[in-house]
Amino acid sequence: MCKIKNLIWVMSKLQVAVDRYPIWDDVIQIDTWKGAYGKIGICSNWTICDAKTSEILLTASCIWLMMNEETRRLSKFPDEVRSELDKHLTNVTLPVVARKWSPRDEMSIVDHVRNGIMPRWSDLDMNQHVNNVKYIGWILESVPHSIVENYELASLTLEYHQECKMESVVQSHTYVMVSNNGKIGDYDLVDCKHALQLETGGSEIMRGWSIWRPKQYGNRLGLE
User: More exposed terminus of the chain, fewer Cβ within 10 Å: N or C?
Assistant: First the structure.
């Protein structure tokens, strides 16, 4: 956290893509680096690969923006912050894809809702709002069991829109792309759209998208 001129870092977007989950006895290697993202942000990047074969298992990136803690407005980097960051930033960043759904998509979704989600003290970070990692668990609260039991998460994109505090009560929405009269079939991939909203007022805290693929139990256990 940066306390220069009341500035703090806030996560704006997170994107994860999983090609293959590690299995028993895998040795993995994690590489991470940071790149510039405009004048008010940086992009953190990660790759996880098999240390023996160099096969890439997972890629991830997130965008961090600088915000004034008092005004809650985004801010440009002060010169002293920029000069320090420039020593560590590279010109290579993983692409962060912006996803949008068309009005036609909205006609082909079914809404699954989980009400009454309330933060705990352990969910808060040092800025006294909910840690961004907790949102992933809240999203999964509204994903249908038929998806969680039969599919595995292949990719996830999250956009953070506003802070969530201790007194907030949250609704988790998962909108599943469906066909066959609203039933989830045996698809190779399942697309979901997610939203976390405040129960009072309905303002959106976070928006997300996920893609799920069928579980391969044998492969995940390292079996033939």
Answer: C
**In which element (H, E) is residue 137 found?**
helix 134-140
Cα distances (angstroms) measured from residue 86 to each of 13, 30, 42, 67 = 21, 23, 10, 19
Determine the distance from the C-alpha atom of residue 190 to the mean position of all C-alpha atoms in its chain, rounded to a whole number.
17
**pLDDT surpassing 90 at residue 132:** no
Structure tokens at 138: 């809240």
Of 21, 14, 78, whose CA–CA distance to 49 is shortest?
21
Instruction: Establish whether 129 is a catalytic residue.
Output: yes
Nearest to 222 by CA among 21, 18, 17: 21
The active-site residue, picked from 2, 127, 131, 132, is 127
Indicate the Cα dihedral angle 96, 99, 141, 204, nearest 10°.
100
- What pTM did the predictor assign? 0.81
Q: Of the listed 43, 45, 62, 164, which one is catalytic? A: 164
What pLDDT, on a 0 to 100 scale, did the predictor assign at position 20?
92
Interstrand relation of 28-37 and 89-90 (parallel, antiparallel or unpaired): parallel
